[in-house]
Amino acid sequence: MGLKKFRPVTPTLRHTVVADYSEITRSKPVKALTERLYKTGGRDNYGHVSMRWISGGHKQRYRLIDFLRNKDGVPARVASIEYDPNRSARIALLNYFDGERRYIVAPDGLRVGEVLQSGPDAEIKAGNCLPLKNIPLGTNVHNVEMNPGRNSRVARSAGAYCQLMAKEGDYAQLRLPSGEVRKFHINCRAVVGQVGNLDHENVSAGKAGRNRWLGRNPSVRGVAMNPVDHPMGGGEGKTSGGRHPCSPWGQKAKGLKTRKRKLSDALIVRRRKS
């Protein structure tokens, strides 16, 4: 993947940096592997705004992604690399040798025509899915399950990966994209390699309208509001709120610990902030 810049013939194009989509090999999805997405505009079933700064956006269909990768022993050929409007990563269409088709998150370096496989006996190669106990130490993985047999939850966005640090007993230690080191059961599955579309972090919208196409409204600062709308609003002239930064409902925005004690605390070896 590469990035495309433009001659600054307009103020918008001066700052616009977009993907060149050179890795995309198919423009339309397989309709049988999609379903309808309903727009809420950030409103709940009463019509009240429950999620601010959401509305509009281009019409989209959701691509059904195989996060289980439970088709063991059946090879699959990569038929195409496609754009997915619902995620930052690209997706790959797999044609299994038994006739079934599924979408997966495309890892970096995946090419059309490659053969992928899932299961404990799969080769250690980008795109193959194996249990952590069958993956060598130091390997980069993505799409990691939190619990064996459930959908993968960890490292699914563009450029994300975890590194397998150690194995001890029934648990393996992974360093997550945040820097946290956490234990996962060795029967949890993971896909070898790093998620593709690495240049996604360098994309620049260039204009507000491109964010509106994505369904994102402008986010208004609390200090710019009136006191009736936000605790930090109001004041003579431009003030910085006059109080500790908080949400519209008074919850502190800096320094307040929101994580309660959870059973998963025992699985965290090193915190991301330590």
Give a structural overview.
This protein has 274 residues and is mainly β. The protein has two domains: 3-201, Nucleic acid-binding proteins (OB fold (Dihydrolipoamide Acetyltransferase, E2P)); 222-268, Ribosomal protein L2, domain 3 (Irregular). The protein is built from two helices and 17 strands. It has a seven-stranded antiparallel sheet, with no helix packed on it. A four-stranded antiparallel sheet has the order 7-6-5-8, with no helix packed on it. It has a two-stranded antiparallel sheet with strand order 1-2. It is globular.
What CATH first level of the largest domain would be assigned?
Mainly Beta
Level of helix content?
under 10%
Q: Mean pLDDT across all residues, rounded?
A: 94
Quaternary class: single chain
CATH topology of the largest domain: OB fold (Dihydrolipoamide Acetyltransferase, E2P)
Structural class by helix and strand composition? mainly beta
- How many discrete structural domains? 2
Total number of beta strands: 17
**Strand sequence of the main sheet, in spatial order?**
9-16-10-13-14-15-17
Tally of contiguous helical segments: 2
* pLDDT < 50 stretches: none
